[in-house]
Amino acid sequence: MDDRQIIALYNERSEAALSETAKKYGRYCRTIAYNILFNEEDSEECVNDTWMRAWDSIPPQCPERLSAFLGKITRNLALNRYKHNTREKRGGGQTMLVLEELAECVPGADSTEQAVEETLLVEALNGFLAELPAEKRKLFLRRYWYLSSVKEIATDFGLSESNVKMTLLRLRSKLKQTLEKEGIIL
Fold first, then answer.
1. Taking the CA of residue 52 as centre, how many other CA atoms within 13 Å lie in the half-sphere pointing to its CB?
2. CB contact set of 156 (below 8 Å; sequence gap of 6+)
């Protein structure tokens, strides 16, 4: 079933929308959640919450890309769960490492001006990603959107881990320069 048909089921308030969504995007959303949480039960709970958020959001929203819409919901739920789980303790995994890497070139949320500049930041990030060659853009997204480990990325792209690390370092540096050029305060 294609995305338009699934969205039509949501608009009709048919419960079949949930089963079709789970069938088509269950593995995709579980991968996103698991890469953040490294816990099967929490990941499954985030995915189930994703279906409920989609049910509550469609309508009135009508996403152009259902995969991106669901991926964003899953990612946000998983990051919130991660924050909740690590409030008391510091766990391993990629999430803190990835967030620390990006902290060098993306402004923090402490500033009141951050809320106003968020749109500018999104536009600058989209412009930065659009200018990258496809392979570098995929590599960047695998690390900083899907939170894949350097080892996983190296294996999937047929690169050495040191090559992936160096490419990511250069991409972060380029992102920082782009954001500074756009006048985004770091």
1. 7
2. 142, 148
pTM of the model: 0.66
CB 151 within 8 A of CB 161: yes
Residue 103 has what DSSP assignment?
H
The C-alpha atoms of residue 47 and residue 33 are separated, in whole angstroms, by 7
End-to-end Cα, the chain, rounded Å: 44
Cis peptide before 107 (omega within 30 of 0): no
pLDDT in tens, 79-113: 999 888 876 554 455 666 666 776 666 655 554 55
Q: What structural domains and CATH numbers belong to the chain? A: 3-86 (1.10.1740), 95-181 (1.10.10.10)
